[in-house]
Design brief:
The strands form four sheets. An eight-stranded mixed sheet has the order 11-12-14-13-15-16-17-18, with helices on both faces. Strands 4-5-1-9 form a four-stranded mixed sheet, with no helix packed on it. A four-stranded antiparallel sheet has the order 3-2-6-8, with no helix packed on it. The chain has two domains: 111 residues, Immunoglobulin-like (Sandwich); 243 residues, Rossmann fold, CATH 3.40.50.1820. Strand 13, helix 2 and strand 14 form a beta-alpha-beta unit. The longest helix has 21 residues. Helix 6 packs parallel to helix 7. The protein is of the alpha/beta class. The chain contains eight helices and 18 strands.
Length: 375
């Protein structure tokens, strides 16, 4: 499946400030004729009652005739996607060719059929290209502790130079498929290493900031989003600047992420333009398709233009990507209305055949990195 954690978009709709909740009971049924009656089947999806993409949290009940079922209350004011597993992403439901199913989508009557399951063989450990350093359990006021992983460019150890820094959200997903939430990473280490060694871009440090179970609130507008941004600005960046040879000025400080991490990266530049000057915003959720939980387009429209800022923005065209596009279109128009020049201060790259997942973002990342580093 390799779908990025989408829970930010839907779990937030369960919060009290969403006045248009559409709560209702939903029954899920899956017919799995290849499984024994003793099998334990789980559902994992993009809403809190479905485990927020935890593959072993929400168990279905065996009903006989190779059928497992679950009744659950869900807020249906925004699309919900889900998968079936046998307790891990190594054992998820797959198609006859062995490839994971695309996400199932919530509908009125749910009776899915799954005849094949992944073998359970461990995901091969991906070789990280280059040198990475780990910093465990970094503390932030009002937040859960989290790890950092720092990728150092080729030549770092042998030089005395200082380097620009990219701060990536969902840090466990950017370098190593073993730590990635869904077994596929962004391959940023391979992309950056190749571009640097070929002389296409200059060397850069990449910092991956791990997410936590509070991701769906930390990465979007709101009190916890503000707390997380203050953590990045007031704790993470000072720590990196003290521990590594960085170029600490705003011109050399970049934010990056996808999905909720995409809007968060935009927000870091918009709300802290004295700290960040550029953002890589892949598949960003600038505005919810439904509901009124947030609309960051309105924020940008209402506030003064920020000087000397640059935004790379892209999006696919399938599934959730399609639902995010209207908000992206509105943001592109808002940037233009403020006087930002497309192709210079911002760019939008469409990828119509792409879904909302790590492989798609990995494919687009080299172009994103090249464009943002050349600005």
């Amino acid at each position: 499946m390799r779908i990025k954690l989408l829970s930010f978009l839907f779990a937030i709709l369960l919060c009290a400030h969403n006045t248009h909740a559409q709560q209702g009971e939903v029954q899920f049924q899956v017919y799995a004729p290849s499984l024994p009656d003793t099998a334990t089947v789980y559902i994992s999806g993009s809403a809190a009652p479905l485990g927020n993409w935890n593959p072993a949290k929400v168990q279905l009940q065996f009903k006989g005739d190779h059928t497992w079922a679950l009744r659950v209350m869900l807020d249906r004011s925004a699309p919900i996607e889900y998968k079936y597993t046998l307790g891990s992403w190594n054992r998820e439901a797959v198609q006859p060719d062995g490839k994971p199913f695309p996400n199932f989508r919530l509908r009125d009557e749910i009776r899915d059929t799954v005849r094949f399951w992944a073998s359970g063989k461990p995901i091969p450990k991906g070789k990280i290209t280059g040198n990475v350093k780990y910093h465990r359990e970094l503390k932030g006021p009002g937040l859960k502790n989290r790890d950092l992983v720092v990728w150092l460019p080729p030549g770092y150890e042998a030089s005395r130079k200082n380097y620009p820094v990219i701060y990536m959200q969902d840090g466990q997903n950017v370098f190593d498929p073993v730590t990635s939430s869904f077994g596929a990473d962004w391959q940023i280490d391979e992309s950056a290493d190749s571009l640097i060694r070929s002389g296409i871009i200059g060397p850069v440090i990449v910092v991956g900031i791990y997410n936590t179970p509070e991701r769906s609130r930390e990465y979007v507008p709101g009190d916890l989003g503000r707390t997380y941004m203050e953590f990045v600005v007031g704790t993470v960046k000072p720590f990196i600047d003290s521990a590594y040879r960085t170029k600490p000025g705003r011109k050399h400080t970049i934010a990056g992420g996808s999905s909720a991490g995409g809007i968060l990266s935009f927000m870091l530049v918009w709300e802290y333009p004295d700290i960040f000057s550029k953002a890589i915003c892949m598949s960003p959720a600038f505005k919810l398709p439904k509901g009124d939980a947030w609309n960051y387009v309105s924020t940008v429209k209402a506030e003064p233009k920020r000087k000397n800022v640059t935004f790379y923005i892209d999006n696919g065209g399938l599934g959730l990507e399609k639902l995010l596009q209207p908000g992206i279109d509105e943001m592109l128009n808002a940037l233009s209305m403020k006087g930002y020049k497309e192709g210079k201060q911002f760019i939008f790259i469409p990828d119509p055949a792409a879904e909302h997942n790590e492989p798609a973002w990995a494919k687009r990342f080299p172009s994103a990195l090249l464009w943002i580093m050349k600005r």
